[in-house]
Amino acid sequence: MTHINYCLRQGLAAALCLAAPLAATAQKKPAPAGKAANAESAIHEADIKRDLYALAGDHYRGREGGTLDELKASVWLVDQIRATGMLPAGDDGTYFQWFNLQRTRLGKSSTLRIGTHDVRLNEDGVVVAPTNASITAPLVYVGTGSAAELAKVDVKGKAVAVQIAGAPTDGISYRRYVFGKFGGQAGELVKAGAVAVVFVSDAPAQALYDHWSHIYERGRYSLPGAASTKVVSTPPVIWLPASAAAWVQQAGQQFSTELKVESFQYPSVNLVAKMPGTDAQLKKEYVLFSTHQDHDGVRAPIAGDSIYNGADDNATGCAALLAIMRAFKQQPGRRSALFVYQGSEERGLLGSTYFSAHPTVPQASIVAVLNAEMMGRNAPDSAALLGSTPPHMNSSDLVKTALAANQQGPKFKLDTEWDKPTHPEGWYFRSDHLPYARLGIPAIMYTSLLHVDYHTPRDEPSRIDYAKLTKMTQWMYLTGWAVANRTAPPAREPGFKLER
């Protein structure tokens, strides 16, 4: 894997150099008697495109959560937020809410040797979960690990090498099928007495290895004190590329490893701003517009590009919220609008988990969460609203408002398959609305769904459909505007319970 040193000379001050001018104020449409007109006309495609190109360019090096790049991008965003006229709503009168990440990873001194091969961890192979281990044992190869193959071998006290093969038969994605082996099949081998498990990619798994193996280099992230911060010494699970298949199968080899885990903390940040409402009572309640500013940073190069810019994921949401802020500045709603950019989403929804548990406004005052997640790709006339299908729907009232806003505005054809609990991607559980929904707060997610450039360096600003992104932004705004101005907050669904 390629490692690129951080350009420390590009300090946080450099982030301020990209400050964009305010969008020109659009003319308001005449309002019906006694009712304020919305400011949808303040949302401009040119503003959204400008902001997205600035944020998702190479300057911020993919905005990896918990790095200087995420912090530099966050400073730039705060400069843009201030320019919209939004008020700070973070800690201590600022736009920032700081929190710590707990990172648990293998130490640099960890080693792995199989036979005569010294495996360079995170270059020639990866350990899929941080664990302390000191093992020297015979290595046995069991093919694909079928019952027939295992019946021929005693795996007790041995390291077991297994060929990844086959395809999912129960509707899950191939990625989840392979990753499931690292827990499921490996767990069964450990129960049978294996002291380590080595998975070797076949041809289809090699494509997955090329795309995803770098995530294990980072280790595991959580908020301090979470159960996942505890390091349990378990038999290690190794993932090797297909090029290792020939020599791993050789008989009579020894497996030897010394794995040492290290754990430490460093900061990430949420960005919080608000536009106070106009109604003396309703201004105490908030419609929360949500997104995340981080992506994957600098990782293994694909076609010579090692910066994972995250234009769709999730600079689209970041640019959308700036546009919605300009609309609320031009015409505030009766309720207050709260805007939260959640840091370290890609680390496991950590910023939203932290903010939902430690909000800078009373938790009970948040009446709805509208979350923007990847809104600029795929067919121009299609989109999805997650949280609109049971068991994910925790407010049919809020969903009706969003559907009405779609009909009022862009009239997208809505894909409902991705919101079903049977969908192989489990997409509902992978964005920042989730922690709020678990608290019972009405929450929905606006998305144009996954695409082939997801979590690759090809997720570039040039690939975004800006006309579509503008319509997605308008849809989200119109929903929030309706919620901000109705007298009663969106009703919560009785008996709401997620399937997991």
UniProtKB/TrEMBL annotation:
Coiled coil: none annotated. Keywords: Signal. Residues 1-26 form the signal peptide. Pfam families: Peptidase_M28. Residues 270-476 form the Peptidase M28 domain. It comes from the Bacteria. This is Peptidase M28 domain-containing protein. It comes from Hymenobacter caeli.
